[in-house]
Specification:
The chain has one domain. It has 8 helices and 6 strands. The relative contact order is 0.18. The protein is an alpha/beta fold. The longest helix has 15 residues, at about 170-185. About 35% of the residues lie in helices and about 15% in strands. The protein has a 6-stranded parallel sheet. It is an enzyme of class 2 (transferase).
Length: about 200
């Protein structure tokens, strides 16, 4: 059986290419995504959509990152015990955020990335406000406020840069989800994910 042809940019099957929906957004904050190798193989790889849609975003694949550029303007998006809520930051504190490091993986894999990289442990941590709800309707999450990497980035940038323009990143995300629901069929979706 021949493999399905894939778009070289978004890595989706050509019949489900999302490129026409992916924006090209500028941001003041640089986004550095550290992706656990297991995530790269997932069909619903939202980190890839973030990198394609943000001009100042890049992705590093691996478990250890000894050469990360870390300076005083670098923050880690992670809900550790000392993390500050993004909603609590003053304008001056928001302006101080120059680079945001985001861990991409299950919670277990994200904690492993943090554990394996002591430089990350030393960074000031920022967390999303409580009550954020995911639009990721085809995934069972361990917690109701568990978000995809893309959703977390959109919320974080929207709060740091005080702009709603990052919502445009969710257009291809919604199309991706709708495509998955259509592929599984309404009955299967309702049985496994419906309310």
């Amino acid at each position: 059986m021949a493999a399905r042809l894939r778009c070289v940019r978004c890595q989706r099957p050509l019949s489900h290419c999302l490129c026409s929906l992916i924006p090209s957004l500028s941001s003041r904050v640089q986004v550095q995504i550290l992706q656990h190798p297991d995530e790269a193989r997932h069909a619903l790889n939202t980190a890839r959509l973030a990198v394609l849609g943000l001009e100042r975003a890049n992705l590093c694949l691996g478990e250890q990152f000894p050469h990360l550029p870390i300076d005083s303007g670098t923050y880690l998006l992670f809900p550790g015990p000392e993390a500050r809520s993004l909603k609590e930051l003053t304008l001056a504190e928001q302006t101080a955020v120059e680079r945001l490091i985001v861990l991409d993986g299950t919670w277990r894999k994200a904690r492993k990335l943090l554990y394996l990289n002591p430089a990350l442990q030393a960074l000031p941590q920022l967390k999303l406000p409580e009550g954020c709800r995911s639009r990721y309707r085809v995934r069972k999450a361990p917690l109701p406020d568990a978000l995809s990497t893309l959703e977390a980035i959109v919320i974080a940038l929207s709060l740091i840069e005080r702009s709603e323009r990052f919502e445009a990143l969710l257009v291809p995300f919604e199309a991706l989800i709708e495509g998955q629901i259509a592929a599984m069929g309404t009955e299967v979706y309702q049985r496994n994910h419906g309310c």
